[in-house]
Amino acid sequence: ICLFSNSSQICSLAPSSTMERGVMLAVCLLCWSCSVCVVTAIKRADMFPYGTLSGDLILAEGDDETSRVLSLPKPLYFYGSLFSQLYVATNGIISGQDLPMEKQYVDDGFPTDFPVVAPFLADIDTSGGRGQIYYRVTETPSVLNRVAQEVHRGFPDAKFTPTHVVVATWENVAAYEEQTRTAGPSNKVNTFQAVIGYDETDSYVLFLYPEDGLNYFGTRPKESYNVEIELPARVGFSRGEVTYLIFSRTEGPHYSVTSDEQSVKNLYQVGNTGIPGVWLFHTGNRYSFDNIVPASIGGLLDTPPTGGHGLSLYGEFEEYPDNTFDSDNQEEEDDYPHTGGDPEFQPAPAGGDHSESLQPASPDAPSSPSEDSGNQLSYGSEDVPLTSEPRYNSEPAERQYAPPNPPERVPEGDAQRTLKRQPQVTLKHTAFFFTFFSRFQQQCSQNAFCSDYATGFCCHCRPGFYGNGRHCLPEGAPQRVSGKVSGTVTVGSTPVELNNIDLHAYIVVGDGRAYTAISQVPEPVGWALMPLAPIGELFGWLFALELPNSQAGFKITGAEFTRHAEVIFYPGNQRLSIVQTGHGLDDHNHLTVDTVVSGNVPFLPPGAEVTMDPFKETYQYYPSVATSSSVREFSVVSAERGSESFSFQLKQNITYRDCRHDNRAAVLETLQITMERVFVMYVKEERILRYAITNKISPVRVDPTGPELVNPCYAGNHDCDTTAQCIPLEGQVFQCQCATGYRGDGHNCYDINECDEGLSSCGAHSQCVNLPGSHRCQCQSGYEFGFDGRTCVAMTQCVFFFSSSAPSFFLDIDECSSTPCHISARCINGLGSFLCQCQPGFYGDGFYCSQTEVRPRSQCEQHRDRLQSGMEQGGPPSPGAFIPQCDSDGRYQPLQCHGSTGHCWCVDFRGQERTGTRTPPGTAPKDCDRPDEPVRPKTHCEHHRDSVQTTSPGGYPIVGAHVPQCDANGQYTPLQCHGSTGHCWCVDSRGQERAGTRTPPGTQRKDCLPSVAPPTVRPLPRPDVTPPTNTDITLLYAQGQKIGALPLNGTRLDATRSKTLLTLHGSIVVGIAYDCKENQVYWTDLSARTINRASMATGAEPEILINTIDLVSPEGLAVDVKRRLMFWVDSNPDIIESANLDGSGRRTLFDTDLVNPRAIIVVSSTGTLYWTDWNREAPKIESSSVDGQNRRVVVSDGIGLPNALTYDSSSGQVCWADAGTKRLECVSPDGSGRRVVHPSLNYPFSMVYYRNHFYYSDWRRDGVIAVNKDSSQITDEYLPDQRSHLYGIAIATTHCLSGMCVVKVSRELPDLPPQRCRGSG
């Protein structure tokens, strides 16, 4: 009756008797409960209005289309960043910036490189009328009111009144399908909607999936090698890459709603708003925002939210940020600092009264409905009032529930222990309780051993690790630091408050480089703190490059210490105090250090530059303390004051916990730290303060640059991987050895997954989590670490009596009060845990029960699901990863095939590969049912080869690594050659390189004989040039780690004679230019941050021209043949510079009004520079004279991403290729005569003009494309064998071409006579 009757009509009938009134009341209550409990999925009519009648724009049909910029009337906050425009894309996403081509993101998981709101990220194709995509930004009151109602229902405490709403709708859109794979297009189409509401401070996003809206749940990769795989759609949010330190970018925070196909199917079946198919998220805040917060009406979320990580760069963010606490709980929170990112142990989200969420749920407490019935939904027979935004437990169940009292993590050294939260009872002897408990905390690192001495015990790091024993890190691996900076700094007479702003540091231990960045520094104090390099010097001292008879600070202090420093500035006598506290290592083995600064600093003018010379400082060591004192000088250059000199005195002491029970020899009483390069800067636009220092530690009076220390390990100029140790041998000889936890040849190292390879120390009832260079163990639910800090034991009930009359206090609470189990299961509370058990007649794990019996997941299924969910890597699964195949019974299929590489092999019942069964793609796989034939054991060479050639345990091919060659007997072949670089060398019987035998590509190889000579490694010879022969005109192109040469036959691309001109290991070559007078090629290296050149003569070696720390991101490069000058753009500080061709005479031409400069060319004949700026808001092409005069805008209308630029010497026009408009256009220098040469390019990056043809590098085709200027047709194409992005492109000739040095007489220069030129030009 309730389902089909109008309850209000029934309840309005007048009863005639008391019994009738009772019956009527029961009927009314039943009907009311039905009306509350029964919620159906939304219909299409329930979606927000969309279509042309609603004012929507329509996205063009296609497989990979992006909308024109959708300018917002007012900007919105996404995470903590401000965006004033949006783009809607075919593939189910909205972004705050123009999107790259789809192959760079559509098959990948989160995080993405760019900001993304993804209601259904998949390979969607609307070609041929298969669906429409609508979008608009609106201020319609009805839409604003509906968004406000949804937000207030999902976040009752939010003070949110939207001013604008963005609505994007994908209606009946189809998945991309290759025609060769299907007989015809599929009839399956999807409909879904994303709604972004925002005001001046906050943004919220709704995802809507109508009842019949999802009919496919993933799409197949375009390059799946005929293997039947389908990638489930990704739903969630990603901040995109963020800038950190000085030179780097890293992935920002991200949040996933789905993890597999089933979770995608659930999108329209469940929701987090109480209405199936409706999902609501808090996505941004102006003041403080760490990661996405979901609405949680009813406490049910389909999948556990994945937090990713945020601006901490190196660790996971707390998924539900803890911005505010009730004052009653503040003291408790301070007693339990949060240092990890595990979502199971984080506080409740911000918003609302958190005191209620921290109270234990009493099983006897009566449940009464909330006054606001809109905030209450029923699951099963119990009503769950919404008093706060509950947390989600990371239990391994299909559906996750939110217990009201999440446990906390209590870090202590390297051990981790979880405590269920105590009831809110005031205990007089609380301090005693925690003192008693802390006595049993594990003292040593898991990578250390404990030695018992007569007077006590000490911890010592195991071989391969270093530290003080309480904290141990893998030797040779780079280290990361994160923390907060707070305090009050008075600049001149103006006090400035620093409220827990972020500090991050990255230290390359192998050469002593330490980079420190402090973000969100207000402008007045940002300039003034530039001289305060001592803030970052701490990290340089902790992880300095060690010279003989010395040790870096971390070996003494470990990760727990306190540094007090006092800085006195002269001549003003301003004083500043710095207190830095090391709190230990977090879950990712990253050091956590908080900094408090207080005092006065001198005022520095905005825009000032601070220079600090290299210096040395002596540290004196005493038991448990290290001290130093020094005077530093620095100069300040500003437009207002010119150049000024200042100094400051630094006094500091570092206290730490020492262990002397072993009576070991004391460390040297004094050590000297040398800071060779000190670079400081404040980036006003980003409000980031940066310090970069190179640090070496040695005995006092040792010169780090002296002749006795010329070994590359001590000089820091070795070529070992950043995750490898440099081991000095005699003279200049050294050896590269991968750091503990890494594997490789020392020049290229990759992480060992201890969890997969069975190398972990985790025991029963624990889970192994892989970390870079290490791993950690975490106990399963209901278990905690025992006294050894490694073994997981069941949580037990603890009773403590504080006096004879005091009552007992229990640590246990009743989790069952929060109804964590499935509706068809019963909850059994235990001591320290709880158990969910399916009711009779139902089967499952208690979190999910069904009437169909479900067997436990097998080893194969668990292995497969871990990889698919990303648990193996601590994040989303990587593209190309191998996923094991299981049969219907959960066993490993005997034949396993890698979908990306095409290799197949047989496995045993444990999933381990059977030796000798691997077959390459294109060959018939082995018959895995046949028994193994007796085979000899693998040799050292074969083990080495297979570890590199096959895939890692997680399924990742090892890219670019040398694959050793073994003979028929499994022994190393005497001559080894690297397939990527072309270098060859001789090896001994153990595969070690024989000194002096390495030959570069194209040269005569050594005659190698077997040898057992001991292995030594010498510095690799520098790469040399191998130019093509018998060619007059050659296209030079940059492709990552090499410069390629592509000869021209007339105007045709001669692919048969293409070759690698120069291999540059570890480089990213971007800009490229050619000097026809001296036959030299010039290039910019984005990785090494250098500008280089090399003669195009056989055997020539590269020469570094510019290699300074302020060269950040060099891109476009141009050479003025006539004036012997070169010009380049640096896209990080956004400047244009010039120098002589030998690197001297460097000067800045432009450092203002540049946002994203990229391409630059010089026309020698007119002495004119042209460059592009792909500023998203105002792209333009500008010009000036070569001396920086007469700057003006040539083109600013109708352009988008002008990546490529060249000069048509025959017409005197400037031409550009635009990756935004997809057009190739030309215009005269005065802005007249503009014309489109080609209207539909793919994704051009760089371009050059020669004999009526344009040649450009294309990022979609990963090749060189030729376009005829007259016919506007693409006439030729060259795709290198190695498929990767091509960057810069240039013309190399045996003589200077016309236009390179002949001045073209034109109307602009009527009186300039022609000049003579070399060669045929």
Question: Number of DSSP helices?
Answer: 13
E-strand count: 85
Structural class by secondary-structure content: mainly beta
Strand content: 35-45%
Largest sheet: 11 strands, mixed, barrel
Cα distance, first to last residue?
Answer: 96 Å
What average pLDDT do the residues reach?
Answer: 76
Low-confidence stretches: 1-38, 298-441, 797-810, 951-957, 1011-1021, 1299-1321
Main sheet: strand order: 30-31-32-42-41-38-39-40-34-35-36
Shape: globular
Radius of gyration: 33 Å
In helices, the fraction of residues equals under 10%
Give the tags.
1321 residues; mainly beta; eight-stranded antiparallel beta sheet; globular; disordered C terminus; cell adhesion; LDLR_classB_rpt; Wnt receptor activity; disulfide bond; calcium
